[in-house]
Structures are given as C-alpha cells and as structure tokens.
C-alpha cells in the first residue's frame, strides 16, 4: 500500500539516527504505486531511500523522498550449474542472503549481515570478505523517474567498480531500482581467505560451504562491527584509497606496518582504517560524534549529533589524513 506523508521525520529511516524532516514522503510497494506517485511530483527533485544505512542527512529534505518497499523473491530460470533469482528491490539484503544460503546457492554468502535493501546493493556494489555483489548480478531493472519508463541494465551497463556503479554517479536519483536479477551458482565458491574466516572455520571444525561461511561471517561481524540499533553508524565511512605503488613504498619506509593490497603493477589499495588508527584516532570524539573505539573506519553518533556535525567531523579526519600521509580520503557514504 502506498503511504504518503508531509513533514515526516526520517530519524528511524537512517542508521546514523539523524533527525531530519522530509517535506514530502511517499512509500511504494509496487511499480504501479511508484508510477502513480511519479505523476504527482516534480521528478527532478527526488531522493530515493532504502534502509538508510549508507546515507547521511545534513539538512532538511525539500525533495520528495521515495521510500522503496517492493518485495518478492522468485527463481525465474535454472540450469545444471546456476539459478537466476528475481528479487524485489525493497527486500532486506541480509534476509535474501539467508534465503540463498538456505537453498544452498553460492555467490552472496560472504555478504551476510550487510544492512539495507536489495535495491541499494548494486548502487555501491556492496562488498565484504572477498566478495562483491557485481559478480552475482545479471540485470538491474529500473523505472526512469523522468519518463516513468522501464529500463533494464545488464551487468556491463552498470559500470561496477569498487564501491561504485553508474547509479551512484551519472544516474544518481534518475532511476529507481525496482528489481535485481541475480545469477547464483549451484557450485560452492568457498571464498574463505579474507579476514579471520578460514581460521574461525578451522577452530570450529566446520566444513566449508555457503551456510557455514555465512554463519562464521555473521559471528565475526557481530563481534567486530557496532550494531546500528545500539550505536548509530553507517558502517565504513571512507573508502580505502588507491595510491601509486611508488608512493606506497615511500610510506612503507616511514610506516613499516602500513597495510596495503597490490591492485596491479602500478597501484596499491591502502587500508583507510589503518591510516586513521595509526594517528591514534580510534575513540577520538567531538560532542556526540566519534571514531568508533575498535573500528577506525566507522564514525558513530553517540546520541543527538546532527548530520552537519558528523560531516564536519569526517572532514576533520580527512584533513588529518592528508596532512600526515598526503592521501585524500574519499567518503563512501552518500551525503545529502
Ligand atoms: C553496520 C554497517 C555495516 C556495513 N557494512 C558494509 C559492508 O560490509 N560492505 C558494504 O559495501 N557496505 C556496507 N555498509 C553500507 C550499507 O549497508 C550498504 O551500502 C547498503 O547497500 C545500503 O543499503 P540501503 O538500502 O540502506 O541504502 P540507502 O542508505 O537507503 O541508500 C544508499 C544510496 O542508494 C540509493 N538507493 C537506495 N535504494 C535505491 C533504489 N531502489 N533505487 C535507486 N537508488 C537507490 C540512495 O538514494 C542512496 O544514494 C554497512 C552499513 C552499516 C550500517
């Protein structure tokens, strides 16, 4: 059912717990409802909202907030090796991972416990523990806001990169993702080399399969990451920056413990959390905003912080990183 509200608080719709007001808010559960709403609003001024776990509201929203609630999971095709699954964009991401694991399919099990909706998963090509969603996406189905027409994007057209896609940049707020078609594998991918996954599985004497991998990752994440329901946050606030191999080598002389992963012969991805931690900023706090005590990449709202205060704090961290290492950190979270 379509729900429409004026001057509606978005506090419970963003995991930073920021109290922002939407001048006009509309929640839709089907393409038909979305199209009805689009006929009534200025489609140039729209903010699309999923679970609000990757958004920082820094001001009141005078745009129309379109809140997606399209549900449904169904298998639409299969062969010996794969299955194609059509998922409504408003489905909870983690619930879909559990569904996939329950059916013994592989491809997204390492992405367990990432908050948010299925529709937002392609936006920044969510990734964790050696897996990225782009490797399991066949097609992204959308409705163009301006024309109300349906447009489907195949994997290549989505221009997926590390925490990026065409929808996060060129097509931001131009298309509402309504469905995602996933191609999941019947063969187990068994990616366990990242983080503590392999060790945990060994310690618990568990065999390697999607269910055990996802259970283990849930356990690790519950230990490591703050639960937004208890301590407001948006997960990693910054992206891991990519720098030139030579610059990394120079930094390594000064900071022998710096963490980086070689991308190719010329570039290295540096662990932004290490850069922040190394400056002693874990637990650093101004007012109600802080760097998490154990996860340097996570900024937290301890209570009543305003979005602007969180953004100012993030910019201060960026300045400190630039001054110390001459590296420009990029914000991962969508700032509105
Ligand atoms: C504790 C915690 C841990 C996290 N861990 C990870 C992690 O390991 N890996 C990772 O990649 N991310 C992680 N995140 C970030 C976040 O969970 C993901 O980015 C998630 O996909 C956001 O989903 P959402 O529905 O909450 O999106 P929202 O925050 O509602 O929206 C994010 C962006 O997508 C757009 N959008 C949302 N839905 C649609 C749609 N249907 N059509 C078009 N545009 C849309 C919005 O306009 C916005 O620009 C974490 C967040 C938290 C709080």
Describe the model:
By secondary structure, the chain is α+β, with helices and mostly antiparallel strands. The chain has 3 domains: 3-68, Uridine Diphospho-n-acetylenolpyruvylglucosamine Reductase, domain 2 (2-Layer Sandwich), CATH 3.30.43.10; 73-185, Uridine Diphospho-n-acetylenolpyruvylglucosamine Reductase, domain 3; 232-335, UDP-N-acetylenolpyruvoylglucosamine reductase, C-terminal domain (Uridine Diphospho-n-acetylenolpyruvylglucosamine Reductase, domain 1, Alpha-Beta Complex). The chain has 7 helices and 20 strands. The chain has helices at residues 31-40, 93-102, 197-203, 210-224, 245-254, 272-278, 307-325; strands spanning 3-9, 21-28, 46-49, 55-56, 61-68, 73-78, 82-88, 127-128, 131-132, 137-144, 150-154, 175-185, 232-236, 242-244, 260-262, 267-270, 285-286, 289-291, 298-301, 334-335. The chain has a 5-stranded antiparallel β-sheet with strand order 6-7-12-10-11, with no helix packed on it. It has a 4-stranded mixed β-sheet with strand order 1-2-5-3. A 4-stranded antiparallel β-sheet has the order 13-19-18-17, covered by helices on one side. A hairpin with a 4-residue loop joins strand 15 (260-262) and strand 16 (267-270). It is globular. It starts with a strand and ends with a strand. The model has no long low-confidence stretch (mean pLDDT 95). Bound molecules: flavin-adenine dinucleotide (FAD). Flavin-adenine dinucleotide (FAD) binds at residues 15, 48-55, 68, 89, 114-117, 119-121, 123-124, 126-128, 167, 176-177, 225, 228, 233-235, 334.
Primary descriptors:
336 residues; alpha+beta; Uridine Diphospho-n-acetylenolpyruvylglucosamine Reductase, domain 2; Uridine Diphospho-n-acetylenolpyruvylglucosamine Reductase, domain 3; Uridine Diphospho-n-acetylenolpyruvylglucosamine Reductase, domain 1; five-stranded antiparallel sheet; globular; binds flavin-adenine dinucleotide
């Amino acid at each position: 059912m379509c729900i429409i509200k004026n001057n509606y608080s978005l506090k419970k719709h963003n995991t930073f717990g920021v109290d922002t007001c939407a001048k006009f808010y509309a929640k839709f559960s089907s393409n038909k409802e979305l199209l009805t709403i689009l006929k009534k609003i200025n489609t140039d001024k729209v903010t699309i909202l999923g679970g609000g776990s990757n958004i920082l509201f820094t001001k009141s929203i005078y745009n129309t907030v379109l809140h997606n609630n399209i549900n449904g999971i169904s298998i639409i095709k299969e062969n010996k090796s794969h299955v194609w699954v059509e998922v409504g964009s408003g489905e909870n991401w983690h619930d879909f991972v559990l569904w996939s694991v329950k059916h013994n399919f592989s491809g997204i099990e390492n992405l367990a416990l990432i908050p948010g909706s299925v529709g937002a998963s392609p936006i920044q090509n969510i990734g964790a523990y050696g897996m990225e969603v782009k490797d399991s996406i066949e097609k992204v189905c959308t409705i163009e806001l301006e024309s109300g027409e349906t447009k489907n994007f195949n994997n290549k057209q989505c221009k997926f990169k590390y925490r990026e896609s065409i929808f996060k940049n060129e097509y931001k707020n131009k298309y509402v993702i309504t469905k995602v078609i996933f191609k999941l594998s019947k063969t187990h991918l068994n990616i366990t080399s990242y983080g503590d996954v392999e060790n945990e599985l060994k310690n618990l004497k568990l065999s390697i399969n999607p269910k055990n991998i996802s259970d283990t990752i849930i356990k690790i994440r519950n230990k490591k990451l703050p639960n937004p329901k208890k301590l407001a946050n948006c997960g990693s606030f910054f992206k891991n920056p990519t720098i030139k191999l030579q610059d990394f080598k120079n930094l390594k002389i000064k900071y022998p413990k710096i963490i980086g992963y070689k991308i190719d012969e010329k570039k290295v991805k540096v662990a932004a959390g290490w850069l922040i931690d190394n400056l002693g900023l874990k637990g650093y706090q101004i007012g109600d905003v802080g760097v998490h005590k154990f996860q340097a990449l996570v900024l937290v709202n301890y209570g009543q912080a305003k979005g602007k205060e969180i953004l100012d704090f993030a910019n201060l961290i960026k300045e400190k990183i630039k001054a110390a290492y001459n590296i420009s950190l990029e914000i991962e979270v969508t700032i509105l």
